[in-house]
Design brief:
The complex is a heterodimer of chains A (580) and B (283). Chain A is an alpha/beta fold. Chain A is built from 22 helices and 23 strands. The longest helix of chain A is centred in the middle third of the chain and has 12 residues. The chains are: A alpha/beta (580), B alpha+beta (283).
Chain lengths: 580, 283
């Protein structure tokens, strides 16, 4: 008879178990350990240092803070992913105030805080700045609601700040000299990303900051730093590993080119380069000296085109990550396929998503990359045309794909050679790529592809579907299969009430479900909410019309967001959200 | 209720808001659906603007891949213009986008990002065919808009190379405050250009803002134009007269505004040079 877990736990002092648990790499493993017996629950929760909350409404902030009293690092995510594409009303929620208040109360030792897609106010930033003695890392990604005045408070009060990472936030600029709030004695900065800052930057102040922070490894500038000033900054920080050049254009003169070139030649350790880059082609060769060592190149906001773009990218033989616009075209991707053998991640963005598509980037480029880059596992690709044959080739070339997101810009585009749906192609992807964790499908798709996805995509955690499927069967295949599914987001598909209700239990095993412009009715949502008390079923109605209580059951639901929670219905729903 | 052309209706019911029978076998199963589809197309053609329709029409006719398959197995309705119109890609989406705008305009909410994004989208670029599609995030959309505006300005005959624009993502910002200096006054004002959608609206706002600086009587105000000229400084540093270019291009290039008295015709050159020197000393 195996020994009772409680006896095993008592064999060693708690500190030994804590040390054992420190080897458990993922939260999932720690959760399992914590669930095995009371002793381990107690020991694990007291020793967990990193807390991850994937949905800020899944648990009450005070509860989370109380459960893990020794947390030093936390990440909290708010709005659904589709908020990035304007599908979620601005006042939907995701406010950080309650979280910050709870953390200030219960985690005075907190060192790292990251928010993603949350509404963070200047007040929050003030509280953060004053509450945590040993605060080191602040990361805000896709957030909004704060201004440079809030950043000034952080700069002034966080004496040991190492990382200030602002990634694609919407920031109001009302305090243009916020950088001056870093005291002269402040030298601990290692990572500064201000690429998304909308306003001007006081360059002399930035220069002084960069000069005295000798450990600075990452510096990502915004558009306000012209080329002449960039050169000065570069000379002050030759130890940089990650550089975002900002605009990379300005007043041009002969002198500037040679200064730029010599500045880059001094960069022995640079691994990552990015920038918005309205670069004049003539200035690009200035960066050639660092290309050989680059592992990450982000030109996804750059207007650089071929042939200069190809010349630049083909020099980056050590590249592992490439983000680029569709200016690279098939020719460019073929060049990448032959030069960048270590490539792991490729993202190709559309330069002109709404207009006519003159760029010659087709499925051929992606097939070439899949054939030439054996370590490729993550793909995001926007294009206009695709064939089943190409997708099958990609699937066979790269069974090691873990992320595959394909966006064919025109909805419901079939295979342009055979005019068939792309079911066969995507089915090949899920059958061949056994470790696929994230998938976005597009083009003309019938229920057949969802049958394959449900059956084969065992490791799939996130699925995005748009303008696809024929009937309820499609959704049913997904929800009844896909064993590891955590996030499902669907828009503009003919999926109705039946598969949702038939698979209600599945929703509690997932983090969240988003469905918009499908065929859902109020009655089904009510039934779902009644059946599954641990789900929040939110109907989002931007028209903010008559109360949903009074509407008939067959009233169509335009936007639905369902997520599991132990916190019950939230108390901050705006007028456009009705929790069923 | 706004129309939802490509939403499939609940199978057993004909809902008033569904115009196109999106049925799983892609059959138009009833005459009623046929007529409503026609009516729907005509409606959308009626309200579409010339430019956007032409752009989309050319896109539809030039994209050959969708035509054969969709035509034969799905839609038997004819396009009034003669070329094939895939309802999903053209009329339906455009109609939905326009309906969305109309709804947003009728229900203004400045705190809602989606509202303001849609409103700005109507002014600054061709109507995006569907809200949130293709799935590119806000920053990227802003950048696309800026690049398009820049290339439009380039093709409009600017001789200088326009790669010195000093901002790269401002065009769809929630607010855009620029300084306004009135000649003769040390203290300037700031105006939010994003709160306006036309020159009329801006000029009205500026007039209100500076009304206590103007020394004209109440009676005269309506009768005659105040003897003032509105200039702006563009991204290349040049002073230009406000009103020549379309509003969208103006927004993309304006850095500052100036209000100066109208230079008298005879002493035109001399006076404006003097004004500039005076202003430069003050700045």
């Amino acid at each position: 008879m195996p020994p009772h877990p409680e006896w095993t736990a008592a064999m060693f002092p708690d500190e030994v178990w804590e040390h054992v648990f420190s080897f458990l790499p993922s939260d999932a493993d720690r959760n399992v350990a914590a669930a095995s017996c009371h002793a381990w629950l107690r020991i694990e929760r007291r020793s967990r240092r990193r807390v991850f909350v994937g949905n800020c409404y899944a648990v009450a902030p005070a509860v989370a803070v109380a459960r893990f009293p020794e947390a030093r690092a936390v990440e909290v995510k708010g709005k659904p992913h589709f908020a990035d594409f304007d599908l979620v009303p601005g006042d939907w929620g995701g406010g950080a105030d309650e979280w910050v208040a709870a953390m200030a109360e219960g985690w005075p030792q907190l060192e790292e805080l990251r928010f993603k897609r949350m509404v963070v106010s200047d007040d929050c930033l003030e509280v953060i700045a004053r509450s945590f003695r040993n605060f080191r890392v602040l990361g805000l990604a896709f957030c909004e609601g704060f201004s440079t005045a809030g950043l000034a408070a952080v700069a002034a009060n966080c004496r040991n700040l190492r990382v200030l990472d602002l990634q694609e936030n919407v920031i109001e600029d009302n305090c243009s000299h916020w950088l001056s709030h870093f005291p002269e004695s402040f030298t601990s900065l290692v990572h500064l990303n201000i690429a998304c800052l909308p306003g001007e930057v006081n360059v002399p102040v930035l220069e002084r900051l960069v000069s005295r922070c000798t450990n600075l490894k990452t510096l990502k500038l915004n558009h306000a730093v012209p080329l002449e000033k960039l050169v000065i900054l570069l000379r002050k920080a030759p130890q940089l590993v990650d550089l975002g050049t900002g605009r990379f254009s300005g007043e041009h003169h002969l002198d500037l080119y040679s200064k730029l070139e010599s500045a880059f030649t001094g960069y022995k350790s640079l691994k990552s380069l990015s920038g918005t880059w309205e670069a004049v082609p003539a200035y690009l060769p200035a960066v050639y000296s660092v290309c050989e060592g680059l592992t990450s190149l982000n030109l996804s906001y750059a207007t650089t085109q071929n042939p200069e773009l190809i010349k630049l990218v083909s020099r980056c033989k050590s590249l592992q990550r490439l983000w680029v616009m569709d200016f690279i075209e098939d020719d460019g991707l073929a060049a990448v396929a032959s030069s960048c053998k270590l490539l792991q991640e490729l993202r190709v963005f559309p330069s002109d998503p709404y207009g006519p598509q003159p760029v010659s980037l087709t499925e051929r480029g992606l097939v070439a990359i899949s054939a030439g880059c054996p370590m490729l596992h993550s793909v995001l690709y926007f294009c206009n045309q695709m064939t089943n044959a190409a997708l099958i080739a990609i699937a066979l070339n790269r069974p090691n794909l873990t992320r595959f997101r394909l966006c064919i810009i025109e909805p419901q585009t079939p295979d342009y050679l055979t005019l068939q749906p792309l079911d066969a192609g995507f089915s090949a992807i899920v059958e061949s790529c056994k470790d696929l964790r994230r998938l976005s499908v597009s083009g003309l798709l019938t229920d057949r592809v969802f049958k394959s996805i449900g059956a084969y995509a065992d490791r799939l955690e996130m699925l995005s579907v748009a303008f696809a499927g024929d009937s309820d069967a499609g959704l049913h295949y997904i929800l009844s299969g896909c064993k590891s599914l955590r996030k499902l987001e669907i828009r503009d598909c003919p999926f109705g009430d039946k598969p949702l209700l038939a698979n209600a239990a599945k929703l509690e095993t997932m983090r969240s479900l988003w469905m918009s412009s499908c065929s859902l009715t109020l009655g089904a949502c009510k039934l779902l909410a009644r059946k599954m008390p641990r789900l929040n079923v939110e109907i989002i109605d931007e028209r903010r019309g008559a109360s949903w209580d009074s509407r008939p059951d067959d009233c169509p639901v335009e936007k639905l967001y369902v997520y599991r929670t132990v916190a019950g219905p939230r108390s901050d729903t705006p007028s456009c959200v009705w929790t069923v | 209720m706004k129309t939802m052309p490509f939403e499939s209706p609940p199978r057993d019911q004909q809902q008033p808001w569904s115009n196109i029978g999106f049925h799983k076998e892609y059959k138009l199963s009833s005459k009623q659906t046929n007529t409503s589809f026609h009516g729907h197309l005509e409606l959308s053609l009626g309200i579409s603007s010339e430019n956007t329709f032409n752009t989309m029409a050319s896109r539809a006719t030039s994209s050959s891949h969708g035509n054969k398959y969709c035509m034969s197995s799905r839609w038997s309705a004819q396009n009034p213009t003669g070329g094939y119109v895939h309802p999903w890609s053209l009329a339906a989406r455009q109609q939905k986008a326009v309906a969305e705008q109309a709804r947003q305009n009728a229900n203004p909410s400045s705190s809602s990002c989606s509202c303001s994004c849609m409103e700005r989208a109507t002014h600054l670029q061709p109507i995006p065919a569907v809200v949130g599609w293709p799935p590119v995030c806000t920053f990227r959309r802003n950048l696309v808009s800026t690049h398009q505006t820049k290339s439009a300005m380039d093709s409009a005959g600017s001789t200088k190379s326009s790669n010195t624009t000093e901002r790269n993502s401002p065009v769809n910002r929630p607010t855009m405050f620029v300084k306004v200096h009135m000649q003769g006054f040390v203290v300037g004002r700031k105006v939010n250009l994003m709160a306006h959608d036309s020159y009329d609206s801006l000029s009205f706002a500026l007039r209100n803002m500076f009304s206590n600086y103007l020394s004209i009587n109440e009676e005269e105000e309506d009768a005659a134009e105040p003897d003032l000229v509105l200039l702006y400084e563009d991204h290349e540093g040049d002073r230009m007269l406000v009103g020549d270019v379309p509003w969208d291009l103006f927004i993309a290039s304006v850095k500052r505004l100036y209000i100066i008295p109208k230079p008298k015709p005879k002493e035109n050159a001399g006076k404006s040079v003097e004004d500039e020197k005076e202003r430069e000393e003050k700045d």
